[in-house]
Amino acid sequence: MFRLNSEQKVFNLNGIRIGGQPGENPPLLIASMFHNKDRILEDRKTGKFDRNRATELIRKQEELSRKTGIPAMVAMVANSPEEAQVYIDFYLETTDMPFGIDMWVAEKRAKATEYIAKLGVQDKFLYNSITPWDKDIKGQVERLKDLGIKHVVIQAFDDQDQTPAGRLKSLEDILSQGADSFETIIVDTSVMNLPSTSFSLIANRLIKEKLGLPCGGAYSNGTHMWKESKEEWGLEGFRAMDAVTQGMSSVLWSDFNFYGPIVTASRIFPAVATAHILMSTLVYDETGEIGESESLPINRYFADFVQKVREGGARRKKSKS
């Protein structure tokens, strides 16, 4: 279950390792800022926002990332290229974490990407995303290559076949149009609602098994769109559901997670770190190995336990030989 037969690709995004066998690297957690109803927003048209509060939120994510060993970045939502420029300038002045821009309209996204290329920060930028709904994928790829874009998200989804196999088919179609030529390719397997999250997780495994590409998803789509959960269970119940879903999803063949509003970092990082610790020992039971990386949560928090487990495994191997 936790050892894939095919070779797994590991990409480097501004020093962050993404991909590999389950348990090899911690998942990249990607927050959202400046989304609709984000309380730091004051005037979207002019890009005015509470800079002090935005800085506090970024610092909190940085702190949680350092403590847990789980890498992090931010995807900033904007409606226009001009608005995106304000957020990009602020972000680059504030943190060294990589970043993305979340803009649904392809042409506006392209204009914002031109600004990123103008600044020369392509190494820090994750393009989000090439989608099956884009009208000219080949043209988009050529434009991105001309701008020196290195790291991209490909969204995999098939309206006619919403099964995991449909997501794989959609991805292969996009890759065949030139999208396989970037330095980093990570696959968003399109979470549509809470129960369909399982389809995305299964698609993660299918894609990793066949193509070896890092996979993940916006698991917050499944939780935050279930509005009725707050009516059923209250705010605390919603928070518990959100943390459980995202922690569980992050370790089922996931190399990254768009986890939703950055304000939720205080619950998401502990949830994902806890889930990853448990996965590390599940991987050990299957493979006899625990990842060596110091950034793994289990190595951060339970180093003595890991040492004893490794020593015990070594003794068993020696006695068998």
CATH class: Alpha Beta
Low-confidence stretches: none
CATH architecture: Alpha-Beta Barrel
Strand content: 15-25%
> Count the helices. How many?
11
Distance between the termini: 27 Å
Radius of gyration: 20 Å
- Domain tally: 1
Number of strands: 12
Description:
With 321 residues, this protein is of the alpha/beta class. The protein has one domain (10-320): Alpha-Beta Barrel (TIM Barrel), CATH 3.20.20.20. The protein has helices at residues 51-68, 81-94, 106-119, 137-146, 164-175, 197-211, 219-224, 228-251, 265-287, 297-301, 303-320; strands at residues 10-13, 16-19, 28-33, 41-43, 48-49, 72-77, 99-102, 125-130, 151-155, 184-188, 215-217, 256-261. An eight-stranded parallel beta barrel has the order 3-6-7-8-9-10-11-12, surrounded by seven helices. The protein has a two-stranded antiparallel ribbon with strand order 1-2. Strands 4-5 form a two-stranded antiparallel ribbon. Strand 1 and strand 2 form a beta hairpin. It is globular and about 60 Å long. The model has no long low-confidence stretch (mean pLDDT 94).
